[in-house]
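Morning!

This is the sequence you dropped in the shared folder:
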Amino acid sequence: MRMCPECRASYEDDVPVCPAHGAALVSLDVSPRDDALEPGVMVGEYRIDHKLGSGTFGDVYAGEHPLIGKKVAVKVLNRRFASDPEAVSRFIAEARAVNKIRHRNIIDIFSFNTLPGGRHYFVMEYVEGQTLAALLEQKHRLPVATALQIAQGVASALDAAHEAGITHRDLKPENVFLAAERDGSHFPKLLDFGIAKLRDDDVAHETGSGVLLGTPLYMSPEQARGKKVDARSDIYSLGVMIHEMLTGAVPFRGDSAMDVALKHDTEPPPALSTVCPDLHPALDAPVLGMLEKRPRNRPASAGEAVATLVAQASELGLVARPPLPSTNAAASELRPTAARSEPSTERMSALDSSSVHQKSSSPRWLVAALGIVILGGMGSILLRARPPRDERFESSASSVMPSASPEPERIPSAAPPLPPPDVTLAPAPPEAPSASAAALTPPPPRPTKPAPAPRPTGKAPSKGPDLQRILGERE
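The structure's back. Tokens below.
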């Protein structure tokens, strides 16, 4: 005789799995009581406190580190599976799968070893709360907001597992642990990867064709037929679980596991609104999409499937509208940065404006200075370019003209000096611009003293005779 480790039902030796739970049957030669660990027993560094529950291949105990008081959960492989290489490989694969995924919505496993009797065990994080199965047993149905909040966490864990190449293959309410939050909400954590399938794994624990592994009530059609499964099988199981959370019942039931498996494969699933008329028909399509018979017709990922359902529920006002990552999330990340950067922007603007003023004022001073230098240089060049006779004439004129009282109103300011051959003394003002220009322009490099010729004779320069003589020669 063989027995189901979950429901303890007995079957003949030719029955490989439990028809109700899909668990592998074990021989009755080993009593389940032989597997129990007594409180106070040390398992590695942790002391066993009490038993928490049982899984497919082992029992789970609450433990505590005797020195630092850290609470843990210890899962120990059942004695009847200790000599089964396939069961041992699956037990190891569960620990490997969890550590390969490493996601906050999956129970963490951080230690692995064997007991003195040869049984394997691993140590997991301890979380206060209850399973989804226990919550459904209490509430029967869950509000839409609560159900979708749990579904989002499970979908996030499944997406992480699928990205790591792992298919859970046994998704059901018993394997979803709800950690109790301070605000009364539930934080879901996926557990029991005991029959998970690792893609390209070197641990050989593939089942033979036609052997059912998993729970028939939540199996996908391809899994019920014993075919190879992938991530889309988990999406189907998630759809069954969402259907149960919202309606209080699974889509298909039957007298045996085979009846249920056949319905999964052939019968169309009922819509949510037909089971519970109080549910809006707009919620039907997203869940029915997850329950498509053909894997290729299901959503591409668990997260995408749940997001579609959440979006529809938000349109109906059943849940809060999810924030858009491209607007709200980005704005929440950018607002503090913008607030912090405003003073810097103001400082940068002030620096830029002052720099512009400084840069704009400096060229003006340079232009003015260069203009003065250029004017002075041009004046000196003009003075140097005159013949020596004109220079003597100008010097004598300049020494005489200050004694006279020139009339400024009659002096043309812009009149250029006449060339030496055309000089006439009929109008006196033409000589005044030269004296005025000489007074206004910077002094030339050459001295402006009277020519040294008159000094040896001691004679003062004569005004009238010299001018008359020059006029006579010109005529």
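Headline: The chain has a mean pLDDT of 74.

More detail when I'm at my desk.
O.
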